[in-house]
Amino acid sequence: MSFDLSRSGLAPLMSSPALTLLALAAGAARDGSGLDDDTRQAMRLQVDAGVLGDFIPADGWPQLAAGLMGEKPSAMFEILRACGALARLLPEVDALFGQAQIAPDNEMIDIGEHQCRVLDLLAAQGAPLAVRVAGLLYNLGKADSPPQHLPAHYQHVERCLPRIEAIVRRFRLSPEIRELAMLTAMELERVHRAAPMRAASIVALLERVDAFGCEARYRQLLVLCTSDYRAYPGNADRVYAKFWLLERARMACLALAATTCAESGQDNHADAAVTRREARAVAVAAALRSERWADAVD
Q: Domains of the chain: which residue ranges?
């Protein structure tokens, strides 16, 4: 069975049935439109017939990227999952559907559906491709958490990182995409746990994510954390307090007078780093305490 893309109006005829299938799914994501039942059935039959059997995933990345950059990326993943293509191209993502975790309000949510909501929120903000890929991948380690621990997902980051690496190799993704995806997997929940009384931990987090040296990537991480928070039921219109907490902390650090090793009488770079970290922790503690006391007085 072949697809009549001219009838669908989504794209010109492509060089292979597999690419055609991905083009149809990506096209649905561009404007959030769906596909008719006949097309969906044809796609399912193609996948069952083995159209993706010897397909090189990297050849399909341009179409997947186009869908990710669409107005509603979740539409592409819903279609790919329904026809069985997602399980063959991205089994790590497909495995998230049907897996549960606890939301902040103690409701149980489906992780795969949650990641789709995150993607659509990122799309609404016009996020670049690297951010959207990171938004898809940071929970991969929750697909097979030990059942005795559920609904908690202990050590999911350790399971997630090699899966991100495998996807990067499979689709030949850029170093920029890999770095942000890995950083998000490692740090997103730490950002969510950031607390005003833990100034030293906040400084350590800011230094780990290179908030002082690579501000652009740090801000991308905050966009991802904010979108993860707002993707939970009931949070869509809420302020993500951790964003402002980290920004106040970072600005307090940046306001410190620059002190070189020579000025501090330290020739050892390691000692200088410790001194700088301690000074930053003091500055963050002062900034967050003053903020909290002001709120209490009001």
A: 1-89, 90-297
